[in-house]
Design brief:
Elements (H helix, E strand, L loop, with lengths): L38 H4 L8 E9 L2 E8 L4 H15 L3 E6 L7 E9 L24 E7 L20 E7 L8 H4 L6 H12 L4 H16 L3 H4 L9 H16 L4 H19 L4 E6 L2 E6 L2 H9 L6 E7 L8 E7 L6 E8 L4 H14 L15 E4 L3 H10 L4 E4 L1 H13 L10 H12 L4 H13 L7 H12 L21 H14 L8 H24 L22 H12 L42 H7 L9 H5 L15 H11 L7 H5 L2 H14 L10 H6 L4 H12 L21
């Protein structure tokens, strides 16, 4: 029999001298000698196969054996080889193969141990990473062909057709099999590769995926982790993780750069637009620089249905989210649920031309009624950081919008200026000089701003530093962009910082990319059109369903709002998230909690309204004023304007119950077109009620809109004064010169 099965030329002749144990008779269909009688061999073989032992001999440092398997195809033979390596923890490499032509053999292959590396140079074995031990171990496998008709008289192989596969093993390794230095060279198993692929699909980087896998192994194996972690089949090295990561993402997202990546980007955007059934993204190549504009269906719903999108838009840029440091611009508006996205821009350069072209592409995919009906004119106000290229691009694309700066970043830049060594400003002088600029920033009027600037010029400490005075002069020349006193007529609703956009960037890096850089721009685009909308959708749904405990920023409407107590607000948030207008009847019906009464107008806000529920009362004006301990100092509006501390106890409209219902119902009907009409705060109601009762100056309980105010000859200054009064309600008892300091917008 051994004459039929040729061994590899390098194989020792000891196999021929082995004991022949085969006493197989195909007519009986069974083995006289079981392979289980040789546990050193049997324990290393895969289970679930029918074996027949032919030869076995114990030799120095191991054994040599020949056996048959009931396997009749190359595919099954390769599967058996993989299972054998997994069980025996022996890693094999192909030494030679034989052609498969002819009917005698269907498949024949020779394996060697991986620790016989066949080095190409003399110095290869001198490296510390070398694993060559010149191991003599071998394994040969042959799958024999089965003739159509077997002639028992002429057939010398009696094992056919039951056992067509022949395996010869020379198990004579010159190294330990189960040791740390040996196991670290094993091939990574397919199960481990599948685990890593799943972790990559969840957004893990190679390093984080490996750490997560190690943690799972430690929890699973506990005390045996020290042995499992040494086996590379179960615990790969970081280099393998990086190679697998690159292999997967090259296949999924294409090339990492160059013309091929541009074609992949265009194909990805085209596929996304076709999936959505509308134009949601555009790409353009400008002299080798790529710009992309995105407006997902969720963003379009915010544009069309959230009325605050026409008032104020926050815009900010950030990088470091992909390996090529593309810049991502996020545009958001505020709401009772925090920042809501309006659009996203991706640029490979922050030059003015790139940002301008990205904004123009954004206008092309914007719905005609974007920015709540303003369309290509853009919002009334853009709030951004002090980036010259960004501000110039915004002014060029949206000339009607007012551009204002974030006061936090302004003061931060001043603080950095004070710390620069070239300015030579003493450490104990820096806080005082910063306070002087801060006083200008939060001046309550233009006159107060001018006085604060004059104080800086006359300040003895400031006069010691000419660079500081020159810097303040530059700031003063562009004071309309950052001074709070120039924003009283703007619908900023107390938002003087860009914290909504800053929070959105944190969400991008923490929640969307999980602090892992994207592989290339294609993956970056994929995450922005899939994971980002999904995140906001989940959060809005949780908020609408009352599953999120939210404290909304006071800066949104000068008071705390809990959307969970307003079913109309919850319906609005749910529509923004899903686009579904109809929910189950009674889905948002609140629990009838004892001691809590909710008086919400069923005709109320469908587009982000914020009227606070008010408890019903039948008491008259005098009783209500006495109950809330109102001390009416004067009926003059200027007195209210100069009142630094406004009673924060919720003083309601001084009227009867009927007047309360009438005022609220008509105040929330429709979309008001002025800052006064939209304010709708209880402080405004308080001051308006007091003024109306004491002087009869303004009587617009029935229709508090700009049209009625115009008919009654209410001046713009009086409207601004009323707005200022309302802002003081939630000043948290702070000094008046700090009342407009934005504590940062709420965020999802």
């Amino acid at each position: 029999m051994s004459s039929e099965l040729d061994m590899h030329p390098s194989e020792s002749s000891t196999m021929d001298a082995s004991i022949n144990l085969c006493d197989f008779d195909s007519s009986r269909g069974k083995n006289d000698i079981s392979i289980k009688s040789y546990p050193d061999l049997y324990d290393s073989l895969p289970t679930g196969y029918d074996y027949h032992i032919c030869k076995h001999q114990v030799v120095d440092k191991g054994y040599e054996a020949e056996f048959r398997i009931a396997i009749d195809s190359e595919e099954s033979a390769r599967t058996w080889i993989k299972q054998y390596q997994k069980i025996s923890k022996v890693t094999l490499r192909v030494a030679a193969t034989k052609p498969t032509s002819g009917k005698a053999n269907l498949f024949k292959i020779f394996y060697r141990c991986q620790h016989k590396t066949l080095p190409r140079s003399v110095t290869a074995n001198q490296k510390t990473s070398s694993k060559n031990t010149h191991c003599p171990a071998q394994l040969n496998l042959t799958v024999k062909g089965i003739p159509a008709q077997l002639n028992k008289s002429k057939n010398e192989d009696l094992h056919l057709p039951i056992y067509p596969t022949v395996v010869k093993i020379k198990y004579t390794h010159n190294h330990m099999i189960n040791s740390a230095d040996t196991l670290k060279h094993r091939d990574v198993s397919e199960d481990t590769i599948e685990i890593l692929k799943n972790l990559y699909a969840k957004g893990h980087s190679p390093a984080s995926a490996l750490n997560t896998h190690k943690l799972d192994m430690q929890l699973e194996h506990e005390k045996d982790y020290v042995y499992e972690a040494a086996d590379r089949a179960n615990c790969p090295d970081i280099q393998f993780c990086h190679r697998l990561y690159k292999k997967i993402f090259n296949k999924t997202y294409g090339a990492a750069s160059g013309e091929e990546m541009l074609h992949d980007l265009e194909a990805a955007i085209e596929n996304y637009n076709s999936e959505q059934g509308e134009m949601c993204g555009k790409i353009k190549d400008i002299n080798g620089k790529i710009v992309i504009a995105l407006c997902t269906p969720l963003m379009k719903r915010v544009h069309q249905n959230h009325d605050y999108s026409e008032e104020l838009v926050f815009i900010d840029a950030s990088g470091g989210m992909d390996r090529y440091d593309c810049r991502i611009f996020m545009m958001l508006t505020h709401s009772a649920a925090g920042g809501l996205p309006l659009g996203c821009l991706i640029v490979t350069s922050v030059s003015r031309d790139c940002i301008t072209q990205a904004l123009r592409l954004y206008l092309e995919i914007l719905p005609k009624d974007g920015f709540f009906g303003r369309g290509s004119r853009g919002p009334l106000v853009f709030l951004s950081d002090d980036s010259e290229a960004e501000r110039q691009s915004l002014h060029e694309v949206f000339p009607e919008a007012t551009l204002i700066l974030c006061v936090f970043h302004l003061l931060q830049a001043v603080w950095r200026f004070l710390w620069e060594g070239k300015n030579n400003i003493r450490k104990d002088h820096r806080p005082q000089l910063l306070s002087a600029v801060k006083k200008m920033t939060f001046a309550g009027s233009v006159i107060a701003l001018e006085e604060a600037y004059a104080e800086i010029q006359a300040n003895d400490i400031a006069s010691l530093y000419p660079n500081y005075l020159a810097h303040c002069k530059k700031l003063y020349d562009r004071r309309q962009a950052w001074a709070v006193c120039y924003r009283h007529h703007l619908l900023v609703r107390g938002n003087n910082t860009n914290n909504y956009a800053e929070a959105a960037m944190r969400i991008l890096k923490d929640q969307i990319f999980e602090r892992v850089r994207a592989y290339n721009m294609v993956q970056l685009l994929d995450f922005l059109v899939t994971r980002l909308p999904s995140y906001y959708e989940r959060r809005l749904i949780d908020l609408a369903n009352g599953r999120v405990n939210v404290t909304v920023s006071r800066d949104f409407s000068w008071r705390i709002i809990n959307p969970q107590r307003d079913p109309h607000q919850r319906e609005h948030l749910l529509f923004i998230a899903t686009g579904e207008k109809n929910v189950r009847p009674g889905w948002f019906t609140p629990l009838p909690i004892t001691g809590m009464t909710t008086d919400v107008n069923p005709e109320g806000m469908a587009n982000g309204g914020d009227v606070e529920p008010m408890p019903s009362t039948s008491s008259g004006t005098a009783e209500m004023l006495q109950q809330n301990e109102v001390n009416v100092r004067s009926s003059n509006l200027s007195d209210y304007e100069n009142d630094d501390i406004v009673n924060a106890g919720a003083i309601k409209l001084a009227s009867t119950e009927a007047s309360l219902h009438s005022f609220r119902n008509q105040a929330t009907a429709g979309r008001e077109e002025s800052s006064l009409g939209r304010l709708k705060s209880t402080t405004f109601l308080k001051h308006r009620a007091q003024t109306a009762l004491e002087t009869g100056l303004l009587q617009f309980e029935q229709n508090p809109t700009s049209v009625y105010l115009h008919q009654n000859q209410v001046s713009r200054e009086e409207m601004i004064r009323l707005q200022r009064c309302a802002r003081r309600r939630d000043s948290w008892n702070r000094p008046s010169h700090n009342r407009d300091w934005g504590g940062g917008g709420g965020t999802l």
